[in-house]
Amino acid sequence: LQIEAALRRALELGQFELYYQPRIDVRTLRLRGVEVLLRWTHPELGRVPPLEFIPIAEERGHIEAIGKWVLREACRVGKRLGDKYGTMLHVSVNVSARQLRSADLVTEVEQALRDAGFPPCALELELTESALIDDTEQSVDVLRRLKRLGVTLALDDFGTGYSSLSYLKRFPVDVLKLDRSFFLEQSLDANGDEFVSALVHMAHALGLKVVAEGIETEDVMESLRACRCDEAQGYLFARPMALPEFDKFLQSGV
Ligand code: G
Ligand code: G
Ligand code: MN
Ligand code: NA
């Protein structure tokens, strides 16, 4: 209850901040993009984890306004850093189920891109399986319209839900993000390599790029190379960072 009341005012009080986690090319180890992750710091509650406040924001209908802020901020920062370093920075934004069901999402994405002067092809939206689970015509239609804008769509947390494989055919996604549970030591010991390898193979056959999440060790990185996974994200390379640190990270020229 306390969280809900505080959450209602968090946006106007400027308590949200974006963190940035690099995505790395598995073969060249060069930076390929960045995922933005929302952080909320309340003066009394302190740092509240997204897994705690995002479900509440969804339930109470705050996620639309928060999500809109995230989109606008991500495009603005993406544009500024891209200009500063003379590259096109690819930015991934998490979009929740309720945002996907909102009629305004396509317009908001379009406006965020236009106002920031950020190219649509540099924006990726990450959708979870649970966001797609109520597979209404409406969400398929929203996804098609987003694709027509030129943004990239990723299926996030792949492997944590059910009936995942059929989603790959049904929804117009471009990128598959393999959940970090695939890359725990114990998962990889139990023939996990073959499993990941088969998933990558299948995704490639469907024309999708594959991103591995939660990569923490060189060993796992080695197996990603063997599996021909395209990109990796995880503490091995960098934790999610506040903007000044991410700026320094870019300066160091990865
Ligand atoms: O950031 P971790 O850093 O703890 O993020 C936890 C979860 O919160 C992830 O599943 C992530 O998808 C979700 N999340 C982080 N930022 C956002 C955001 O801006 N919007 C939505 N909808 N989910 C987010
Ligand atoms: O959007 P998504 O559910 O994929 O959110 C990514 C989550 O994974 C965030 O909470 C982020 O902080 C976390 N994360 C990123 N890299 C690592 C990692 O190497 N190990 C672990 N345990 N978590 C990670
Ligand atoms: Mn994500
Ligand atoms: Na994920």
From TrEMBL:
Residue intervals of the EAL domain: 1-254
Source species of the chain: Telluria antibiotica
Domain of life, source organism: Bacteria
Protein name: EAL domain-containing protein
